[in-house]
Amino acid sequence: MRVGYFQFDPVFGEVKRNLDVVSERLAHVECDLLVLPELFNTGYQFVSREEAVSLGEDIPGGATTARLLELAAARRMHVVAGLAERVGNAVYNSAALIGPSGLIGVYRKTHLFAEETLWFTPGDTGFPVYDIGPARIGLMICFDWFYPESARTLALKGADIIAHPSNLVLPHCPDAMVTRCLENRVFAVTCNRIGSEERAGKKRLTYIGNSEVVNPAGNILRRAAGNQVDLSVVEIDPSEAREKRITPFNDLLAARRPEHYSS
Amino acid sequence: MRVGYFQFDPVFGEVKRNLDVVSERLAHVECDLLVLPELFNTGYQFVSREEAVSLGEDIPGGATTARLLELAAARRMHVVAGLAERVGNAVYNSAALIGPSGLIGVYRKTHLFAEETLWFTPGDTGFPVYDIGPARIGLMICFDWFYPESARTLALKGADIIAHPSNLVLPHCPDAMVTRCLENRVFAVTCNRIGSEERAGKKRLTYIGNSEVVNPAGNILRRAAGNQVDLSVVEIDPSEAREKRITPFNDLLAARRPEHYSS
Lengths: 263, 263
Fold this sequence. Notes:
2 copies of one chain form a homodimer. In chain A, 21% of the residues lie in helices and 29% in strands. By secondary structure, chain A is an alpha/beta fold. In chain A, strands 5-4-3-2-1-14 form a 6-stranded mixed β-sheet. Chain A has a 6-stranded mixed β-sheet with strand order 6-7-8-9-12-13, covered by helices on one side. In chain A, strands 10-11 form a two-stranded antiparallel ribbon. Chain A binds chain B through residues 110-118, 122-123, 126-127, 146-149, 152-153, 156-157, 172, 175-176, 178-179, 182-183, 218, 246-250, 255-258, 260-263, and chain B through 110-118, 122-123, 126-127, 146-149, 152-153, 156-157, 172, 175-176, 178-179, 182-183, 218, 246-250, 255-258, 260-263.
C-alpha cells in the first residue's frame, strides 16, 4: 500500500489558489492514501469567528470537497484533507476522508489549540476509524497528538494507519509521533504545512514542516524538510500494524490494565 | 528542590556488593529525591521463579530496605529504589519510596515486560502518588513508560515528579519520556542501569544507560551517557508542574475530553 503526504504552503484565504496547487501537484501521483495539511484550503490563522464562518464549507456540498472528490476519483486514491466545515452557524476544524467513490467520513477536531477555541466548535464526532479495504484509517488533527488518548482511542478502535493533517508551529510533534506509533503499534502519516502567516494584529506563525510517515516499530520511513514543498509516497505493509505482540510474552493492547488507569 | 539519579552497573545476585556501591557513592550526596534503577540490588536477568523468590525481600523488613532507610536518614533525603518484593510466595517487581523518617510507600509494577511475566506477579497497587512536602512523587517502573496511561494516571492523581526506576534495553524510552513530560506537564527522573548481563542459557542483555531528568516543557535537564556510572543531581522548581496552562486558551488536563476516549 502506498501512503504519502503533500506538504506545501497554503496562502490564507486564497482557496482557489490552494486547491489549484493541490490539483496540479497531485495530478499524476500514484498513491493509495494521501494526506493533506490541516485547513489546507483556507490557511490557518483566522482572526475572527466571522471569517471562519465565511470560509467554512459544507462537506460534501462545498467547492473544496468537490475538487477533492474529482481528484480522488481521477487518481483512484483516498485523500484525507483538513478544512473548515460549516454546519449552520457552527464551524468545525474538520478532516474529510474521501475515496474514489465519494465521501467516506468526516472527523471534527476534538482538542482545539489556542485561539482555535475562539473560532471553532469543539468536535463532536469522537475519533473515527474507516475500513478502506487495504487498511483501517483513523483520523486525528494536529494538536490531538498532544493527548495520548487520541491515538490510543484510534488504535483501540482498530486503526492501522493514523492520518494526521497538521499545522504545527511547535517543535515536538514529529518526534512524539514516533512514541504514538510505538505505543499503539500503528502507522502514522502526519502532513504538516510550511511557510508562515502574519494576519493583521497577530503574531507571525511559522510552520515547521517535517511531515512524516512512521511505522509501528517507531521507525521514521520518510520525514520532510522544515521549509520545502514535498510530495512523498512510501510503500508500507499495513498488516504490520495488526501484529500487536511486542515480545513473545506481551500483546500490546491485551496487556493493558484499565482497572489501574484513571480516565 | 534537588532531584537526581544514580546510574550504575548492578551485578546479578550480588546484593551486598550492589548495596555497598550505592551506600558508598551516595554517602555524601546532597539531594532531596534520588532515584535508583529497577531491581538495583539483585540485577535484572532472573532465570527462574525460584530465583526471584529467593532474592525477593520483604519491604520494609528486608536487608535492602534497611540499608536504604539508613541512607535516607543519614542524607536527609528521599530515595526511590527498585527491588524484588516478596510477599508470601508471590514476588513483585516493586519500587519503594523511602524518606528520612521511614518507608513512605511501595509501588508494584503494573506492566511486566517479556520474561518478567514468568517470575513476577502483576502489580496490584495501581500508580501511587505521595506528597513528600516539596513535591508530589508518582511512581512507575521501566516498561510502564510504554503505556501512556501510566504517566497520565500519575498526572491525574497530582504527581509533580515521576520517579522511574528502569532497566532499559531498547532505545526508545529516553526520547519518549520527553513526550510523557510534555503531555502531562510533569517532571520525570528516569534512572536506568548500565552494563550487561548474560545468565546461563539466556541472551545477553545490554542496558542503555541514558538516565535523565526531563522538565514539564519537555527539556532534557540532564542525560547520562550510555555506558558510564553517573551520579547526577539537578535543581528544579516543582511548581512548574502545577502550571497546567499550555496556552492562554488551553488548560492541559481540564481540556481533556474523556467522553471521546476509549478506555
